[in-house]
Amino acid sequence: MRHLKTLDRAKEVRNDFMQGNGKANKKDNLTRQVAGVRRKLSHEELTALYADSRIVQNIIDIPAEDMTRNWFTLRMKDQQLAQDIMSKLADLNAKRAFKDMRRFERLRGDGFISLGVTQSNSFQLSNPLDMTKLYTVDYLHAFSSLKVYEFFLNEDVFHTQYGQLDKVRINRTSRNGIQLTKETESDVHISRLLHDQTRRLEDDYQGQSLLEPLYDVLTVLDTSLWSVGQILHDFTFKVYKSEDIAGMDPTTKQHLSMIMDYMFRTEALAMIAKDEDLTKQTSSVAGIKDLLDYVWDFLSGSARMPKTIIKGQEAGTIAGAQYDVMNYYARITADQENEMKPHLEKLIRMLLMAEKELGGRIDPESLEWEIQFNPLWNVDSKTDAEIRKIVAETDQIYVSNGIITTDEVREARFGQFGIADNFKFSGDDADWQRIANEVYGKWKENGTHG
């Protein structure tokens, strides 16, 4: 939405989707008589929406940052090898590349990472990546579908790879048209890329931007911002009444208005005749909170993000019973497992298979290894204190009923790691499982003595 003002600021012109020429007719942009038709946004429009709104940037960026913020732990019997792999990923700046790939996916529908490798044989980008010929992994570059000319999908419904991307045609020129290589475009086999795509309609090749289904509610949010701004601008104004106004010519009336506006702009003393009147009027804001809450609730539901997260709540902190925030982080955890983990596993396999990366070629199938994402959130200090109180009261009940002894409680709560580490509660499933196993074990061991 944009607002145009005349030079004399006498009136404002609204130019957004809520402007119409009559309710419920074919020119009314707000009223829909049939199911909504998809609005397909161009790359230029997506860029403009993202650049123009901090709220849009939060919706696009925050989940991508949360997915990669605490990174992961590589569990492997050979700890030195695990450290070498994590060190190589840090050298490749993999964390930044994966975050940008997810940002591009949310903004434009498709996010990519180009796998820059050296092979022991000559190859073309259109050739599949031969892992047995892999020499080194040199770089990771994130990019979006803005760089892709064409998508080539397997459309044979009887093929094992039906619906999967075979290759993409990538632009190899700069923005100003300078040719960067011998070819202006290149076909790249999908094995040489990491491709992040979570929203694709059946009849489309390219993924759908998250901003397309959010477009209407973002427009309403923009309109609400404009409306609130107008209310605040004209929240209070003064009304001056005088019998002399009726006989004034337009020029004198305009001049008087300017003088009065200057003199009575603040809570200054008004000096007027007894037959004149000066009053202050205030704009009514009754019910506006409910309307704004509705817009925020609709935006939150559409983006699948709590309002507090969209507004910039401290990352990874949960206060009290913020179940919507817990659900959000659970959704991020699911995305890590379902979307990001396969790409990380492929990259780690490449590092293991590369001849000159980790001291020689290693068969990934000969090792037992696992990617475990680090917990995404912690409770705030108040909630942490409440949890400690509940645990202490529970321990007191167990001691009073002879289920456990005070020495066992002391060892469990304040033993090897001390009070600070022992009571650190992340909300991870492992924490709940540890507490449940501990309580059940003590009950099973001492239950007959209660």
How would you describe the overall organization of this protein?
Mean pLDDT is 80; it is low at 1-11 and 416-427. The chain is flat, with a radius of gyration of 31 Å. It contains 13 helices and 14 strands. Helix 2 crosses helix 4 and helix 5 packs antiparallel against helix 7. The protein has helices at 43-52, 54-69, 79-91, 94-108, 215-233, 250-263, 288-303, 307-310, 323-353, 381-400, 406-414, 418-422, 429-446; strands at 2-5, 12-15, 72-76, 111-119, 134-144, 148-153, 165-171, 185-189, 193-196, 236-241, 277-282, 317-318, 369-373, 378-379. It is of the alpha+beta class and 450 residues long.
Itemize the secondary structure elements and their pairings.
Elements: E1 2-5, E2 12-15, H1 43-52, H2 54-69, E3 72-76, H3 79-91, H4 94-108, E4 111-119, E5 134-144, E6 148-153, E7 165-171, E8 185-189, E9 193-196, H5 215-233, E10 236-241, H6 250-263, E11 277-282, H7 288-303, H8 307-310, E12 317-318, H9 323-353, E13 369-373, E14 378-379, H10 381-400, H11 406-414, H12 418-422, H13 429-446
Parallel strand pairs: 12-14
Antiparallel strand pairs: 1-2, 3-13, 4-5, 4-9, 6-7, 7-8, 10-11
Helix pairs in contact: 1-2, 2-4, 2-9, 5-7
Keywords:
450 residues; alpha+beta; 3-stranded antiparallel sheet; 14 strands; flat; disordered N terminus
Summarize the entry for a quick read.
This protein has 450 residues and is an alpha+beta fold. The chain has helices spanning 43-52, 54-69, 79-91, 94-108, 215-233, 250-263, 288-303, 307-310, 323-353, 381-400, 406-414, 418-422, 429-446, and strands at 2-5, 12-15, 72-76, 111-119, 134-144, 148-153, 165-171, 185-189, 193-196, 236-241, 277-282, 317-318, 369-373, 378-379.
